[in-house]
Amino acid sequence: MTHRIAIIAGDGIGTEVMPEGIRALEATAKRFNIDLEFTHFEFGSCDYYLEHGKMLPDDWFEQLKGFDALFYGAVGWPDKVPDHISLWGSLLQFRRRFDQYINLRPCKLMPGIKSPLAGREPGDIDFYVVRENTEGEYSSVGGKMFEGTDREVVIQDTVMTRTGVDRVLKYAFELAQTRPRKKLTSATKSNGISITMPYWDERVVEMAKGYPEIAVDKFHIDILTANFVLHPDWFDVVVGSNLFGDILSDLGPACTGTIGIAPSANINPEGNFPSLFEPVHGSAPDIAGKGIANPIGQIWSGAMMLEHLGYKEAGDAIVTAIEEVLSEGDATVLTRDVGGEGTTASLGKAIADHINA
Ligand code: NAI
Ligand code: MG
Predict the structure, then answer these.
(1) Residue 234 maps to which CATH number?
(2) Is there an atom of ligand 1 within 6 Å of 294 CB?
């Protein structure tokens, strides 16, 4: 069975880390006998925008919908194209039209990476943040009235549907089910947001009935963010609405060190549409063109993609190779953000070699 992967490298270091992401995927595909077919696209980048006046061609949906997954680099080059245009015109279109209602980010402290949290070792931090990615607080229901007058009023409503809440909770419970600790934490704020958040809590209780082996707890978002910093070892799978998940999915990876290694996935679990896998970082104009970007975020995103396609063992092999290379700590191999003097290519090659070994 051939898996068709659409490659969109995007801008800046996206174009530099992508070849290393592909190198790792090719090594893994060979070792595990997986048939991957890559198709490269120029669109979804600021250069495409400057040439065509838009980020994507009109028929992008038709062009991409038949792929098994999208492998994305990073989009954005603020000196050429304003960020709201480059981001809304590409990535956010994919997330919406392909109903990628799960945003998934592993938060795992890797060997050789210094956590900004004092005294934390690999093994202390190893959890997932599951964010609802389509509704909630990020709704377009609302408006402005009496603009520019003393009566000026702005309203933006939170939208939670039973379908939308239940499907993200179900995904999070299923994920917790696959983990040794079998623990799920829900982010809430039902003391202050008195309609939608109690509803969210209710649906958590209801969903939990179907997963008696999962230990469930919940925290209000304010103390939850504090606990990410104070007690990151408490967490296994953390699920939140769009806004709370957004905050937690930046804070979680930040607790594990450099932004250069964090991966993420935007998932349509039913597979009605392709899911999208990308590093957390952006196009990093400050270091672009120097060949020094850390490729691990891209490579690890590829591991998440393989797992999504049904090859958990292959995905795990990539993560293990990353861990091995980081713990060897060879300064000639590692990039600067993790204390080395190597290049994007030297680090990418070392990881691919470990996958092959
Ligand atoms: P950024 O993530 O591109 O860079 C933030 C800082 O982290 C910079 O100092 C950069 O050098 C460093 N950094 C990032 N990735 C690295 C890597 N792989 N290795 C070593 N260092 C790395 O965020 P910034 O500067 O706020 O945004 C730059 C552009 O990227 C903007 O146009 C923004 O809209 C876009 N962006 C796109 C994202 C995406 O495609 N999903 C996500 C975040 C930002
Ligand atoms: Mg964010």
Answers:
(1) 3.40.50
(2) yes
